[in-house]
Specification:
The complex is a heterodimer of chains A (about 425) and B (about 290).
Chain A lengths: L1 H19 L10 E7 L4 H17 L3 E7 L5 H10 L6 E5 H9 L12 H6 L2 H5 L2 E2 L2 E2 L2 E5 L2 E6 H6 L13 H11 L5 E4 L6 H8 L7 E3 L5 E3 L3 H15 L17 H5 L3 E7 L2 H8 L6 E5 L8 E3 L1 E6 L6 H11 L2 H11 L2 E2 L2 H4 L11 H7 L3 E3 L8 H17 L5 H17 L3
Helix pairs in contact in A: 2-14, 9-10, 17-18
Chain B lengths: L1 H47 L3 H4 L14 H9 L2 H32 L3 H13 L4 H14 L6 H26 L2 H9 L4 H12 L1 H17 L2 H6 L8 H5 L11 H22 L15
Helix pairs in contact in B: 1-13, 3-13, 4-7, 4-10, 5-7, 7-10, 8-9, 10-13
Classes of the chains: A alpha/beta (about 425), B mainly alpha (about 290).
Chain lengths: ~425, ~290
């Protein structure tokens, strides 16, 4: 045993030290920026790497190192980097995470560093998702809207009108169509409500439901009035009163219901707009699907967050980092990034690109839905994450599974929720 | 007498039948356990060979209807899995061997030397396990940065050794206590010094414990993700868990095919390591060493 251990140790340690020498990285140019990207879809990673390569070729004095991160752990990774004074220079994240980092002063204010052309090209509603106080702490570039994906054949068989961005369903029409689409073998709709909070809050804006009041000093209070109850009750009714939505999907997340959707157990499934890619890849070849805009209430508005690129306040080269971001997120590049992730660009020029308005894969419906996206009110709420995880998530799960009614849900979101929020005042 | 012997033969036959039935039940339980253990691996292999469309079927099959290697091609094409696996192997082997080399003498001292410090030391070892990684990750990062070990595999080995050490120490001191002290006394009577006794008498008897500790150290390091994520920034030094996580997106959405293919490949070095080393993992080496 001893004879084996010693050479093994020597070999392993030698290997570790030899390989570790590869890790220090060479500093080829006067300036090196580390870019933490969270791209993960094949096309998206390719687009990211290609754009970085283009930049490096055109800017030999400002070299960008591409580092792939992970959505699951990015905030732990960033927090360590920020606290230790060693964060990446350019940071890909989503806007809900920015508020906390911005409040701690970890992110550079980009207000004076973004060219006017880019500032004007990105929709003002998208800028709001990355603006805190009077500081722009990220450049928003991809957004997700909520849609339904439907089995066109089942809708046509039931003689149900297929709504379009120009003529969407109202929530009442949606409920009526759901009645038509439900029979002994098929539910009209699957609502995957495993992680419901952000989604139902975003959808509730169609009736003006904001769930929070924020005073002039930034103190947030949870409130549950009629506007906040409207969409929640409609979803609940579909599951428990009309029985047009499958109660079995309440505990599911994301694209979990797709296999049963392809097996025609549901006529429609509620998903984020990116799920079109999974449907395209996974649906049987003869499956005819169509993207349906979310029903409208008083308005067609939906709340949304954004994916963003930020610059670390500790970066030694914030101007160069902002310059890189301005290149990376120009209109032409946003088209490629949106196509890669099947999401919606914040650039208005990009949104007008033919590739994003084709009928293929319902890009036209998806892109049109971006017009209804406004900043999600919860992005402004200090303590939202704790309110969401400790109060709203369990309470909404109980509500949608039929264990509590809307009054008890409202009571908990307000009373327990405000206990949580008061700690952030 | 005759009746008694008939009865004796009968009861012996009954005992044999009972033993056979007992053995059959044992094998049945073992088979059930193997199926339980093997199920995830077989399912992983099956998934890795399926197309996206087949994975989304409501009635999944064990054997892929249209087997494809596209997931393996995607996994290898998009990530440097071979390089990442090599680096993981180096880190895991170095961590496992180092942790045992450090823990073994310490475990011997804790088990054999009577001192007030022993109890305190063992208590401290246990207490050290209470702190969650996330709580200490920032100070650890800062210490390693001061030492110039961030973004190096050597730094990751240091962290893995540090975090495996308490458990391995605890585990090995239990094995040392299991070795009868009279064997060491006999060696001393024969003129062997302390070091000679430890190396020639105690260490060989601890082989099963050492192997178990090596396995623990190897698998802990092979699977470790969080420290690797924090410490290793450049793609050129990243380990296998970091390569695997690239197939996952926000809100738990994953690219299941390439992830299954890559995960399947990630299990192979562990299986080879265990196959190589498991022969040493058997107890009872000291049975019969001490008479009476």
């Amino acid at each position: 045993m001893r004879r084996r251990i010693l050479p093994l140790t020597a070999a392993a340690l030698t290997g570790a030290l030899a390989l570790s020498a590869c890790g220090t990285g060479a500093d080829d140019g006067p300036v090196t920026l580390r870019f933490l990207s969270l791209a993960w879809q094949t096309e998206s990673v390719e687009a990211n790497e290609r754009l970085v390569a283009e930049w490096n070729e055109a800017n030999p004095d400002i070299r960008v190192e591409y580092v792939q991160g992970s959505w699951d752990n990015v905030n732990d990774q960033l927090m360590t980097g920020f606290e230790a004074g060693d964060p990446p220079d350019v940071i890909h994240n989503d806007s809900p995470a920015l508020a906390g980092f911005a409040a701690r002063g970890y992110l550079a204010d980009l207000t004076g560093m973004i060219p006017e052309e880019l500032k004007e090209d990105i929709r003002p509603e998208a800028w709001e998702t990355a603006t805190f106080g009077d500081q722009i702490v990220g450049v928003p570039f991809l957004q997700e809207s909520q849609v339904f994906i439907a089995n066109r054949e089942l809708l046509e068989e039931a003689d149900v009108r297929i709504p379009t961005p120009e003529d969407p369903w109202t929530w009442d029409e949606f409920a009526e169509a759901s009645e038509e689409l439900t029979d002994d073998d098929t539910y009209a709709v699957a609502w995957p409500l495993g992680n419901p909070v952000n989604r139902v809050l975003n959808l509730s804006l169609s009736y003006g439901g904001t769930f929070f009041e924020v005073d002039g000093e930034g103190r947030a209070t949870a409130r549950m009035g009629e506007p906040e109850r409207a969409v929640l009750e409609r979803i609940h009714d579909q599951i428990h009163t009309d029985r047009t939505a499958d109660p079995g999907t309440v505990g599911m997340s994301g694209s979990d219901p797709l296999p049963a959707f392809f097996a025609e157990e549901y006529a429609m499934v509620q998903v984020g707009v990116y799920a079109r890619q999974q449907v395209e890849e996974q649906a049987p070849e003869d499956f005819d699907w169509v993207t349906i805009p979310t029903p409208v209430g008083d308005t067609a508005e939906q709340g949304a967050a954004s994916q963003t690129l930020s610059v670390a306040a500790d970066s030694a080269h914030p101007e160069e980092a902002a310059e890189f971001i301005s290149f990376f997120l120009n209109a032409e590049n946003q088209v490629d990034l949106a196509l890669g992730d099947w999401l919606l660009p914040t650039s208005q020029q990009a949104a007008a690109a033919p590739e994003l308005n084709t009928e293929e894969d319902d890009w036209n419906v998806a892109t049109a839905s971006a017009q209804n996206l406004v900043v999600a009110p919860y992005l402004r709420v200090q303590g939202f994450d704790e309110w969401k995880n400790r109060v709203a998530q369990p309470a909404l799960e109980e509500y949608f599974s039929g264990e509590i009614d809307i009054d008890e849900l409202s009571e908990r979101l307000e009373t327990e929720g405000n206990d949580v929020l008061s700690r952030y005042h | 007498m005759t009746g008694a012997s008939r009865g004796g033969r009968g009861s012996a036959a009954g005992r044999r039948a009972g033993r056979t039935a007992g053995r059959a039940l044992q094998y049945l339980a073992l088979a059930g356990y193997l199926v339980f253990l093997g199920f995830p691996l077989v399912w992983l292999a099956s998934t890795a060979l399926k197309t996206s469309r087949e994975m989304a079927r409501l009635d999944p099959t064990w054997i892929p209807l249209e087997p494809t290697l596209a997931n393996f091609a995607a996994a290898f094409g998009e990530q440097d899995l071979v390089g990442a696996a090599q680096r993981s192997l180096v880190v895991a082997l170095a961590s496992a061997v180092l942790v045992v080399l450090i823990a073994l003498p310490a475990a011997y001292a804790l088990a054999r030397f009577r001192s007030r410090l022993n109890r305190v030391a063992l208590g401290w070892v246990l207490v050290s396990q209470v702190f969650p990684f996330i709580l200490i990750i920032i100070p650890v990062f800062m210490i390693l940065r001061t030492m110039g070990l961030v973004n190096t595999l050597a730094g990751l080995v240091v962290v893995h050794v540090t975090f495996c050490l308490p458990f391995v120490l605890w585990m090995l001191q239990g094995y040392v206590r299991g070795v009868p002290p009279v064997l060491e006394e006999a060696a001393a009577v024969d003129g062997a010094g302390r070091w000679r006794t430890v190396v020639s008498v105690v260490a060989p008897l601890l082989a099963p414990g050492v192997v178990a500790a090596l396995m623990f150290g190897f698998i802990s390091s092979w699977n470790e993700f969080l420290f690797a994520l924090i410490l290793l920034k450049d793609p050129q030094v990243q380990t296998l868990p970091l390569a695997l996580v690239r197939f996952t997106g926000p809100e738990g959405v994953v690219r299941l095919g390439p992830l299954a293919a890559a995960s399947l490949l990630a299990t192979i070095p562990s299986l080879v390591f265990f196959t190589f080393i498991q022969g040493r993992l058997k107890g009872g080496m000291v049975s019969g060493a001490v008479k009476g």
